[in-house]
Design a protein that fits this description.
CATH class of the largest domain in chain A: Alpha Beta
Number of strands of chain A: 13
Helix content of chain A: 25-40%
Protein name (chains A, B): 6-phosphogluconate dehydrogenase C-terminal domain-like protein
Shape of chain A: globular
CATH topology of the largest domain in chain A: Rossmann fold
CATH architecture of the largest domain in chain A: 3-Layer(aba) Sandwich
Order of helices and strands of chain A: EHEHEHEEEEHEHEEEEHEHHHHHHH
Distance between the termini of chain A: 67 Å
Strand order of the largest sheet of chain A: 6-3-2-7-8-9-12-13
Structural class of chain A: alpha/beta
Domain Ketopantoate reductase C-terminal (chains A, B): 243-361
Oligomer: homodimer
Number of domains of chain A: 2
GO biological process, one term (chains A, B): pantothenate biosynthetic process
Largest interface: A-B, 56 and 56 residues
Organism (chains A, B): Zalerion maritima
Pfam families (chains A, B): ApbA (PF02558), ApbA_C (PF08546)
Chain lengths: 385, 385
């Protein structure tokens, strides 16, 4: 099925006034030379499987489809029927108003490539949440779709050490890191509100079993097909660690603090106790932990990240949305791993220690609500029965 | 109006099995010699004004009335009509089932003793929350009812330094401290659920303008009238600071951690991250701060306080109830003051620093909801309008 949808482009000036042109300032120098890799794919469209078509995944699918260099098979769960019937309704700062968007193909579950005799996937793009403390593990989820030694796995997910279980499960496959600040969420089933434009940094996680040149070529090719539509900026980066630590300033600090206090990124800037007594100290702890791990995050990034979302957007970051919706929270890779890395190097991280343990409590509560934790029954202590 | 209500006593053994006889173990030696003070009052009933008739206040009024040595005038707000019509319905671990309870007199607002030519109050018992960051201040609220140099003000409220504004507003009045662990809340208007029995420690805050012997006599007299019904244990303590710091182990630690994670005191014991990674470190910080201020809280108090509420009671402490009900949270005196005292003495308090700042954020959110904080309007950033 070819993708078909009505597309009303955004006004030319989609860059918000007062914001730097790159969301990734100050980023390391960008390698702009894109050498086409996987030359057979440039003739045929790349065969892309996309897991998770929520706010971020749908914008990813749209970017890949509008570029014309990829055909996306999306695996949907709760919104499958809706997407079948009428497609996605998207209001996007990058794409304008898009109605009835459907990827080339949609599925209800991860396909089994071998059993179903499908054409192997060139890329398997994972945009789902990464919640290692709640099964199933991502590697097991995607296993039936992965062709060993062939499919490139793209982790458009946050946090540290997320590649480790994937490389361990698929030792001969390339695993790429995708880091963007794309602010987009599904306000209701099929309704996508994309307010913070997409700019993505892509590079290989180092898989010691695969030639580096192949990993680099795969990353550059994915940059090419992802950015081909011209609606988003896709960059190659050889320094995945830097871009991941850099994003943790936002994600390990602003994100959970907004979630735990239920103040969005606008209100947390307006509330002195939030911005100055919680977010800044947490960000300085991430800077120290990053430095101990060999990544020098410039001091001015703290202010940059704190004010990245304009106040009047009143943007609830992902963890806040998850808690409000009674969903599990993705915090082990985003807060737990950087905390463990920092502590391992002797960095004091008192603010993030408390935040991490509060997230564990909140997750425990969610697990209890969903029946994953059993507790003894309530007793009456009033002596009146 | 004489108090009238049906009273079905609790079974004889109201002490829960497995719990120590005193909720205040290990407490300092109790001064059991009660010398009657204010001898005129032992003939007439003490004229008591009680401010705040919620969960704690209603049990206080009941204790005073059943002892027969006090006539209580209660100031009610939201539950005034209900109390007028049918009185309080109380299920109590100390008193059993009590139906249609009304104090001797009920009022809608704090009376003006001088203007209304009322008999001066011997005691003004304050059981309202103490929220210095949200006006009106308690001293201003009770001012019309206070007869200078006569009325004894009893602060049955938590935290540190709460007496300072009162002594400053009424320099010639005695101010008493009342510390109890009475676990009682109003589940709906007029419905009191009293699950954690009342045992109160009463002693004078030191007012340098009043003779110590008079302060001591007032405290001992109040102990006598409060405990006269035999349903509650009331003790005199000369060491108000110790009993207040001691209770902070529960109130500055368990209480806000339960509120912020929305796990009650049962669940927080079951959740390892709650009990061991948050509550215990916070309690050790309070112990260190108390020690720096001259109060030696024994190490075993940490376990005692953590397990004070039986798990299967699943008791939501006061701050958790307030947040759930969308009310302001009483945290400046309970968390802010001990934190400031500790930091002033150079005690590191990283856990409580984060907890305190989170509470400030949550209070800011509540203030915004109630219109006490104004924020700039929301803007649409999707470029689709």
């Amino acid at each position: 099925m070819a993708p078909s949808f009505s597309y009303r482009p955004a006004p030319l000036n989609t860059i918000r006034p007062g914001l730097p042109n790159s969301r990734h300032f100050p980023e390391r120098p960008i390698d702009t030379e894109i050498t086409p890799a996987f030359s057979t794919m440039t003739v045929d469209k790349a065969n892309v499987l996309l897991i998770g078509c929520g706010g971020i995944g749908t914008i990813g699918a749209l970017n890949l489809e509008v570029g014309g260099k990829a055909a996306v098979t999306a695996v949907l769960r709760s919104n499958y029927e809706m997407a079948q019937e009428k497609g996605f309704h998207i209001r996007s700062c990058d794409h304008g108003l898009v109605e009835g968007f459907r990827p080339s193909s949609i599925l209800k579950s991860v396909p089994d490539v071998e059993k179903e005799c499908l054409k192997p996937f060139n890329y398997i793009v994972c945009t789902t949440k990464n919640i290692p403390d709640v099964p199933p593990a991502l590697a097991e989820l995607i296993r039936p779709a992965v062709t060993p030694g062939h499919s490139v796995i793209v982790l458009a997910q946050n946090g540290l050490n997320i590649e480790k279980p994937l490389i361990s499960a698929f030792p001969d496959n390339i695993v790429l890191s995708g880091v963007s600040f794309c602010g987009s969420h599904e306000v209701e089933s099929g309704e996508i509100l994309h307010e913070d434009y997409d700019e993505i940094f892509i590079g290989p996680f180092h898989n010691p079993n695969v030639e580096w040149s192949a990993q680099e070529a795969a990353a550059k090719h994915f940059v090419d097909i992802y950015g081909a539509g011209g609606k988003t900026k896709a960059h190659f980066t050889a320094d995945v660690g830097f871009s991941r630590w850099r994003k943790l300033l936002y994600n390990a600090c602003l994100n959970p603090i907004c979630a735990l206090t239920d103040l969005d990124t606008g209100r947390i800037q307006l509330c002195e106790a939030g911005a100055n007594s919680l977010v800044r100290p947490a960000m300085e702890e991430i800077r120290s932990a990053a430095a101990a791990c060999g990544f020098d995050l410039p001091a001015e990034l703290v202010d940059f990240m704190l004010t990245l979302d304009p106040i009047q957007m009143y943007n609830p970051p992902s963890m806040q949305v998850d808690l409000r919706k009674g969903r599990f929270c993705e915090f082990e890779n985003i807060v737990g791993e950087p905390l463990r890395e920092g502590l391992k190097h002797g960095v004091p991280m008192p603010t993030l220690t408390v935040i991490y343990n509060m997230l564990r409590c909140v997750q425990w509560r969610m697990k209890e609500k969903k029946g994953l934790v059993e507790i003894p029954p309530h007793k009456d202590f009033t002596n009146t029965k």
